[in-house]
Amino acid sequence: MALPMVAIVGRPNVGKSTLFNRVVGQRISIVEDVPGVTRDRIYAKTDWNGREFHVIDTGGIEISGADEMANLIRVQAQLAIDEADVIVFLVDGRAGLTEADREVAEMLRRSRKPVVLGVNKLDHPKHHPAAYEFYELGFGDPIPLSSEHGGGTGDLLDEVVRLLPPGDDDLYDEDVIRAALIGRPNVGKSSLINALLGQERVMVSDVAGTTRDAIDSPLESDGQRYVLIDTAGLRRRGKVYENIERYSVLRALRAIERTDVALIVLDGGEGITEQDKRVAGYAVEAGRACAFLVNKWDVVEKDDKTAHQFEKRIRDEFPFMRWAPVLFVSAKTRQRVHRILPLAREVAENHAMRIATSTFNTVLQDAAASVPPPSDRGRRLKLLYGTQVAVKPPTFALFVNDSELMHFSYERYLENRLRQAFGFEGTPIRLLIRTRS
């Protein structure tokens, strides 16, 4: 199931980004001693005591007397609050309780989500009594901490993990192929699912963001069981959610974690956007099988070269996904819709493919004989042996005499030889280069 979400919120300049970087263990968010540096939501995956979850860093919330930029930041923070399973409300222990803190607290009370109150910038235990005045906010025991030095963050994370929803076992058998339709809003994901199911299972509208939650739709075709996951997802509340482009990425990310195959839906009429690339990049990073569905192909003026030209544009815009097949479809006219499930099945089988060690090593030897490994300062790379260590995606450990001699171009050559030998259409391949001790 999708990992739970934890949002870090608070007024500007209380140390949210510093805490975010501390929790995820690397410097991702920009940290400046200036209010308003973090404007959008930033996501990262982390774990504490064996429990994995996503952390969302948000911009500082300003309510009274806010300008246009502050209002946009507040909208983004509200979206993160709505998506979160647990909220970390961070306040500044040095500055004490402010009216801005009270306004944020009221906003969080309306969310009805579990809240952990962290009192930041209390670097020494002698300063911990400063946390007591924050009892007034009504969120239970304030936890004194220092984002910068790490003190008290373990206590905070213990409470966060305690409040996370229980992890669910997978709802579906291993032989069920889970296929998520992902993409930016209004490219026709729900319409495609309805076309596949033959019924109006998912609400469809021309308004971007109609689908309110990820919806699972089981079906069976040619003896194979599938679960289709519609992921447009948006909890709308008036005009608060006008900026939904970035929000759709978060919904897609959660669906990607639950799926075997990511069907990346593009709008044939509008072409390719940066948002499309971002969503596809998440699927590749997660190691999922992928295929492109170019929807609304019925509205495209075309000749005998149009499909070829559009596919070339996809290859140019997604150079890291040359292995992903492309299918031109129309949910409205049902053009080629019948080919979507067989395509999902094919890439799912490639995603789970196992190669015998002897066969893999034969391909390696042939590849090295055709193009000798690179050398550096008189030392030549030697491919000693390799074996497949995982599936979904196919992952191979390749043992060499010195991993530092492996050039990225030769690694790419080896991947191409593997694809020539075994296909692997629709799935990323991972090569783990190891120096034999």
UniProtKB/TrEMBL annotation:
Q: Is Ribonucleoprotein there in the keyword field?
A: no
Subunit structure as annotated in this protein's UniProt entry: Associates with the 50S ribosomal subunit.
Task: Kindly list the positions annotated as binding GTP 2.
Answer: 183-190, 230-234, 295-298
- List, alphabetically, the PANTHER family matched: GTPASE DER
Give the gene that encodes this protein: der
Family affiliation: Belongs to the TRAFAC class TrmE-Era-EngA-EngB-Septin-like GTPase superfamily. EngA (Der) GTPase family.
- Entry binding sites for GTP 1: 10-17, 57-61, 120-123
Q: What GO molecular function annotations does the UniProt record carry, in alphabetical order?
A: GTP binding; ribosome binding
Q: Which UniProt keywords apply?
A: GTP-binding, Nucleotide-binding, Repeat, Ribosome biogenesis
A GO BP entry: ribosome biogenesis
Annotated EngA-type G domain ranges read: 4-168, 177-352
Give the protein's biological function: GTPase that plays an essential role in the late steps of ribosome biogenesis.
* Signal sequence interval, chain numbering: none
Q: What is this protein called?
A: GTPase Der
- InterPro entries of this UniProt entry? G_ENGA, GTP-bd, GTPase_Der, KH_dom-like, KH_dom-like_a/b, P-loop_NTPase, Small_GTP-bd
State a single Pfam family of this protein.
KH_dom-like
